[in-house]
Amino acid sequence: MLTTRLLVLAVLLAALGPVRADMWTNQAGRVIEARLKEFDGVWVTLVRTNSSTLRLPLSALCKTDQRRVRAQKSQSIAPGFVQAAYKDAVGILERFQRLPADQQTAEGREKAVHMACSVFDARVNARSAELTDKDVLYEVRRLRASLANRAQ
Amino acid sequence: MKTRVAFLSVLLGAGLASAGTLRPSMIVYGVIRDSYGIRLSPDSASISAFLGTNEVARTTIRPQPNGANYRFDVNVSDPRTAAPNEVTPGATVALRVKMGTVVQPTIGTHTFVAQGNGATVNINLILGVDTDGDGLPDDWESMVIANSGGAVSNLTQVGPGQDLDGDGMTDSQEFFYGSFAFLPGDELRMSALTLLGNGRLSFTFTPIEGAIYWVETSPSLTAPVWTINPISLTEFGELRAGEFRGGALPMTIYIAPAGPTDFYRLRSK
């Protein structure tokens, strides 16, 4: 009976396969193999292959892996000031959406989107020299497009 | 044992020395808006105070009480012992806003005169350039012009005395309040006035999220004397005189009329 149970367990474990782990590099260039478990916006929790947990600030990882953490946890890889600009631009559109229904005309929406895009552009252009990474630039363009698309 | 006592006395001595280094300071706070009138949100910019070319304080945009989005302490030294690069009462201190490494132009007063310990100074700043000198940034005025459908075409046609969308709020009021100057219907307006069974009066308005509001009353409009009126945010809630913060949804305000004829107004900052 015990043998049968162990055999079933072994088959199940084999079917699940090994827990997927990635290589992560910190700012000092040290590499560890671990699985990304959590990211709260500041702190990253990694689970190493020996099951021990490692908690470290996002800034402790190299730039590439910082972006990878954000990407894997579905967070924008755009710098903080771009995200702040996007948040403020979205706030303009949300203000329009709170207007009485009869005021929410297509023309009005277009004007509100124009204002939101203007705010986003001004803030981002003020620090455009900092946007050199092509992946980050792609993300900035994606955020900008998502604002513009709200006019439709 | 002697070693422990000596260690403790060293610690206490260090504590006293630390307490002795506390310096008199004043508080500087306010709201920084971008060139479209939007209050900057966290991570947008840093703010520094300068005495000449010497940076004496620095902070970043963070939500603060009373709707402010920055605040810092500026040390104020005794003029008898102060070094030349330290702030003393009467010195003129300038604020600078940086986005990344770039200092942003500001409109209006960006300096203050240092005061004594515990003093508080409110400095609100608008980023941008104001070519026509009406206190409103060119970026915002250009955006309003672009959305005017051809009704206005130059910066001087948008400003404190103008009301492009004809909703009763001037362009300048709309800029500072945060409503759309090119769309009628989102102005600050009390509506749905209702006299309730419990003797209270209610009205509804659509707030700007995060803005500060209060209600004032006057017994007459001929020689008005406006005072802050107690309000409640619930029909039977306690009435309190003071400010309240706008939420994301339309708000209903409850007041208790004092006499047979009273006048009320809703204000914001």
List the helices and strands and how they pair.
The complex is a heterodimer of chains A (152) and B (269).
Chain A: H1 2-16, E1 22-25, E2 31-39, E3 43-48, E4 53-57, H2 63-72, H3 80-97, H4 106-125, H5 134-148
Antiparallel strand pairs in A: 1-2, 2-3, 3-4
Chain B: H1 2-20, E1 25-30, E2 32-33, E3 46-51, E4 54-60, E5 70-75, E6 92-99, E7 102-104, E8 106-107, E9 111-113, E10 120-122, E11 125-127, H2 138-146, H3 171-177, E12 191-195, E13 201-205, E14 212-218, E15 227-228, E16 244-245, E17 251-255, E18 263-268
Parallel strand pairs in B: 1-10, 2-11
Antiparallel strand pairs in B: 1-5, 3-4, 3-6, 6-7, 6-9, 8-11, 12-13, 13-17, 14-15, 14-16, 14-18
Brief summary:
Chain A is of the alpha+beta class.
Notes on the structure:
The complex is a heterodimer of chains A (152) and B (269). With 152 residues, chain A is of the alpha+beta class. Chain A has five helices and four strands. Chain A has helices spanning 2-16, 63-72, 80-97, 106-125, 134-148; strands spanning 22-25, 31-39, 43-48, 53-57. A four-stranded antiparallel beta sheet of chain A has the order 1-2-3-4, with helices on one face. The radius of gyration of chain A is 23 Å and the shape is elongated. With 269 residues, chain B is an alpha+beta fold. Chain B has three domains: 2-127, Immunoglobulin-like (Sandwich); 138-177, no CATH class; 191-268. In chain B, 13% of the residues lie in helices and 30% in strands. Chain B has three helices and 18 strands. In chain B, strands 3, 4, 6, 7 and 9 form a five-stranded antiparallel beta sheet that branches. In chain B, strands 14, 15, 16 and 18 form a four-stranded antiparallel beta sheet that branches. In chain B, strands 5-1-10 form a three-stranded mixed beta sheet, with no helix packed on it. Chain B is globular, with a radius of gyration of 24 Å. The chains are: A alpha+beta (152), B alpha+beta (269). Chain A binds chain B through residues 80-81, 83-85, 87-88, 91-92, 94-96, 98-100, 102-103, 108, 111-112, 114-115, 118-119, 122-123, 126-127, 129-130, and chain B through 34-36, 38-45, 99-100, 102, 104, 139, 143, 146-147, 178, 180, 182-186, 206, 208-209, 248-250.
